[in-house]
Design brief:
By secondary structure, the chain is of the alpha/beta class. Helix 9 packs across helix 11 and helix 9 packs across helix 12. It has a single domain, classed as Alpha-Beta Complex (Amidase signature (AS) enzymes), CATH 3.90.1300. An eleven-stranded mixed β-sheet has the order 1-3-2-4-6-5-10-11-9-7-8, sandwiched between helices. The chain is 35% helix and 15% strand. It contains 15 helices and eleven strands. The structure holds glutamine. The site of glutamine has 13 residues, from loops.
Length: 432
């Protein structure tokens, strides 16, 4: 699709907040360079508006940063450029990545190209929609509690959150830095693995970034879709939390397909699943509060509390409250303990299985404009996705089927550093 056509069509979808006005010249320049072609070879890429791209507006979909033009490239962006990926623009998102629907953006919600009239999911709403609409070949998203996987599921695309530390976070504007990871979104597993291969790897600018063997990062090269010899687990607690019978049906059909293809399916249990959401949100509130202290209006744009939306403000107020000295030990320490417990429970599951399967979201995307006034209803979208962030493990989503035309994805999780195994299982499933 030509850039002019993307711009025209995006008037309806609103996947982009800002376009790269140098796109055409960058494309021409690349066409002229026939030798030395990078791995992304002119693929069109969308970048979520919380990653720095030099010369573009990095707003985090907030009024706070509406005029912030970045002066440097995030490590992932630098690597995309070095591999000859072409950045189309900055995608829409929930404000500061706080949300599961894409509706908290200061720049208005994004439409779901695969389910018109419905939310695309969030917070990487624009990245998912840009991929689903065919505007880009792939996109970068960030995932703190499901923000890559949730919109991938709702838009019928592939999304992957790597092991914590596999991809540099340098140049990503934090939501909660102990949970945030950047990852790829694409229409198929192969392209997602390719983008991941390009962006992953050690980075001296991010101390949490791992330094692993070169072969670990060859995700595209090592893709192998053989499902035989893999042991898949499914927790009985998952079914109790799916609020839509259609989703349950699609997920179980997916599991049956994996079984018919030779994958072994076993039942596992996650008895403490019910504490995952409060654990996640308490961690996020505190880390987000801390991350936003630099947004005081002196250096960048406005003071965040003066101009932000309701959900961002809620998190700042609660994060501040929890962090108060008088509350020491009451909430945050408990949340950290709960996180350790869940992490242990999840890692024990992987002593007996290779891949943990689950639904991605427990319900279908609501209609744009449908008012959800209780934040807990919005938070409930995240129950299956926060687990991977709390445990730091890799997790990806592949379209599994549709319910009255609305896509839903099957989630694949693996133990830390088993990113390749997870991608392989996703690839195998995609080709069934
Ligand atoms: N929906 C979750 C939240 O609002 C996850 C967001 C994310 O992954 N960035 O925090």
């Amino acid at each position: 699709m030509e850039i002019s056509e993307i711009k025209e069509k995006d008037k309806k979808i609103n996947a982009f907040i800002a376009f790269n006005e140098k796109f055409k010249s960058e494309e021409e320049k690349l066409k002229g360079n026939l030798t030395n072609r990078g791995k992304l070879e002119g693929l069109k890429i969308g970048v979520k508006s919380n990653m720095n791209v030099s010369g573009l507006k990095i707003t985090c979909a907030s009024k706070t940063l509406e005029n912030y033009v970045s002066f440097y490239d995030a490590t992932v962006v630098e690597r995309v450029k070095r591999s000859h990926g072409l950045i189309v623009g900055m995608t829409n998102m929930d404000e500061f990545a706080c949300g599961s629907s894409g509706e908290t953006s200061y720049f208005n919600p994004t439409q779901n190209p695969s389910a018109p009239g419905h939310i695309p999911g969030g917070s990487s709403s624009g990245s998912a929609a840009a991929v689903a609409a065919g505007f880009v070949d792939c996109a970068l998203g960030s995932d703190t509690g499901g923000s890559i996987r949730n919109p991938a599921s709702h838009c019928g695309i592939v999304g992957f959150k790597p092991t914590y530390g596999a991809v540099s976070r340098y140049g990503l504007i934090d939501l909660a830095m102990s949970l945030d990871q950047i990852g790829p979104m694409a229409r198929d597993v192969k392209t997602a693995a390719l983008l991941l291969e390009v962006i992953a790897g050690q980075d001296g600018k991010d101390a949490t970034c791992l330094n692993l063997d070169k072969n670990f990062y060859a995700f595209h090269k090592n893709l192998d879709g053989n499902l035989k010899n893999l042991k898949f687990g499914y927790a009985k607690e998952f079914d109790e939390l799916i609020s839509d019978a259609g989703i349950k049906n699609v997920i179980h059909k997916g599991i049956d397909k994996i079984s018919s293809a030779g994958g072994e399916i076993v039942n596992v249990s996650l008895p403490d699943l019910n504490i995952a959401l409060p654990t996640y949100y308490l961690n996020v509130y505190v880390e987000f509060f801390s991350a936003t202290r630099k947004l005081d209006g002196r250096r960048y744009g406005y003071k965040i509390e003066d101009v932000c939306g309701e959900e961002v403000l809620r998190r700042i107020i609660l994060g501040k409250f929890i962090s108060q000295k008088e509350n020491a030990g009451r909430y945050y320490r408990k949340a950290i303990m709960a996180r350790t417990l869940l992490k242990k429970e999840i890692s024990e599951i992987f002593t007996n299985i290779d891949i943990l399967l689950s639904p991605t979201v427990p319900k279908l995307p609501h209609k744009i404009g449908e008012k959800i006034s209780d934040p807990r209803v919005m938070y409930a979208y995240d129950i299956f996705t926060v687990l991977a962030n709390l445990a730091g493990i890799p997790a990806g989503v592949v379209p599994a089927g549709k319910i009255e035309g609305i896509p839903t994805g099957l989630q694949f999780m693996g133990k830390a550093l088993d990113d390749q195994k997870v991608l392989n299982a996703m690839y195998g499933f995609e080709n069934l």
